[in-house]
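User: Predict the complex.
Assistant: Input components as received:
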Amino acid sequence: MSLEQPRRDTRLDRYVETYAERTHGLRVSAVRALFSVANRPEVVSLAGGMPNISDLPLDIIGSKIGELIATRGTQAMQYGSGQGEEVIREQICEVMSLEGINGHPDDVTITTGSQQALDLVTRTFIDPGDVVLAEAPSYVGALGTFQAYQAQVVHVAMDDDGMLPEALTAAIRTVRSQGRRLKFLYTIPNFNNPSGVLTSLERRHEIALICREENVLIVEDNPYGLLSLDADPIPAIRSFDAENVVYLGSFSKTFAPGFRVGWALAPHAVREKLVMAQESATLCPPVFSQFVISTYLSNWDWKAQITVFKDMYRARRDALLDGLTAHMPAGTTWTHPKGGFFVWVTLPEGLDSQALLPRAVTNRVAYVPGTAFYADGLGSRNMRLSYCFPTPERILEGTRRLGEVLDAELEIHTMFGIDSTPHPHDFASGPGPDVS
Amino acid sequence: MSSDLVVVLAGGLSHEREVSLRSGRRAAQALRDVGHEVVELDVSSSLLGRLEELGKPVVVPMLHGGAGEDGALRQALELAEVPFVGSGSKSARVAFDKAIATPRVASAGWATPAQVALPDDMFRELGAPALVAALAKHLGFPMMVKPARSGSALGCAKVERIEDLPSAMVQAYAYGGVAVVERFVTGIEVAVPVIDTGSGPMALPAVEIRPDSGVYDYTARYTAGATRFLAPAELSDDVAERCAQLAIGAHQALGLRDLSRTDLIVDADGTPVFLEANVAPGMTETSTMPLSMEAAGMDLGHVLSSLIALARLRGAEA
């Protein structure tokens, strides 16, 4: 065979030398690739956070959208305001009032899901190396955004009532004593993703007070607040400190995520910057989606719809908790969420949730390893289980399969005499919610 | 050039599903570019019925890992009398299992690393500490621990110290019940594809692999830019020829058909040492086989098209 071709010396990416430094951590991972299998119907996925929207009145929504296009199509499909349409900003203030917030439509900026609100806030405040405080554990999507802007995340320990005030104070002082620039505290007080923990009212006041005294901005992310399954919602932190909180909201869990409509309610000066950042990013948030959601809020009993969602999620949560009780091996603990989508599991000592994911996928069950929710490599003993999407029957089957996986892994650990003493670093900044 | 319908099979339920989908997309496009009508299918309960509906066209399996590579799916295609490109079920079963393939290649006279294959039951029955100590004594460090039946370096670990061996074994067993432990071979990492379009197996140019991280793991394989490839490899003519002979030798010793890729290490003495042979070589944007074809002045679509013609002639024979 002729081999007269010149030698090719390649990295198979002609731009490899020109990417921005902040992209250097973006790499393919075997763990992420496994989720390709998790999406198959044969697998019970307790991994994803997709809301179940099959209970929505699709026929009515469809007819209202048709009517919207027929009557206001040229407006709904046109460019719009960078801040978002006024009518929906007014309606959002009504939605927020359910959690005690007295906001003005002028201070609301519409975003492409609350994820974009998080992006805009981060780009507005963060220079490379700046510090963001976040609960331990915290939302993987937020950690990704912070990383993209080269922020350094410092986790603050929490327990069953939310972030520990003394840990928050200590973290603020430590960061400042190190000469690092602390920009804001990111918190999910309602049914924290991933832990499911609800921050108590008392803690909310304490957190607000500490941040006010220490002059630390709070970014309060609240996608799940209205999905409180056992009691009325607790007032948002924003409801008692309008000047020191940027509040992020979303219709993704209370209506449907496909429209990608979220918002930020921010103090005036911040709001101006967010609008300019929004205009630079997208010119304007999706106008048609805003019109659809506005139509939905005007023409449908959306509060009753949320009650329907809550009944459905309550049954799924209970199925997951029942399944865990029935099938988890001794030494496993988990949170008991009062709302939202997630249960946070702490595995018996010595087990590593990321290492056993292939075994789980082989057994047709999936979850998200706990390390995804920490910026500092902790969480190896944890996993996030979602109850939002599979039916209660599938959830029970998923816990049965998961129990088999953990039993097999424990057996093999015992067989090899793998050290099962607690990971010392797990307790350095808190192991996550205290479920003892 | 043919306009015949072909089915590219990709996806499946193995740990390598994502890689398979990427291989399948690229192969399908390459075949469309040379004039084939291509249907892309995933593995599901409706697969055999769908193939029947389509008139049993030639299947191009781009499935990696699990049933797609261990012979099971190929056996089903044989039973359903559907012609397909690549090795038959029996040889795929042998090649996919490192605990069987490596000794077979060694028996044919090729250099292979010293290897021990151990099912997890063995540790349960004989006690882990004694077996771990025996492994350390027999193979020495560093050593490689791998799942016997897995690809894309999933579950593989280089172990430098005896204290790290148990956790590496546990990691390998997460991918299957048998692990192989091999003496680590230091040298130049090389992949050599083999194709046989009807006139006997022919080795394509060796591709040299230089991962930035030093380890050609899953991330280094599938992150564009994370690995430097040299095609053909920077080897002397003599060593390159010996690599080619080894790849053809492994292809023949394992009874492979149509195409394969042998991964090997050229050790300090210039001896190519067999690591594994793949019956379903990756065809992703960062895979070595398409790179090697390009170095040989070949086109992926045309090569696959030739193999499809062979498969059609062969019909549904096992």
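Chain B has three domains: 5-85+304-317, 94-110+186-297, 115-183.
Let me know if you want any component modeled separately.
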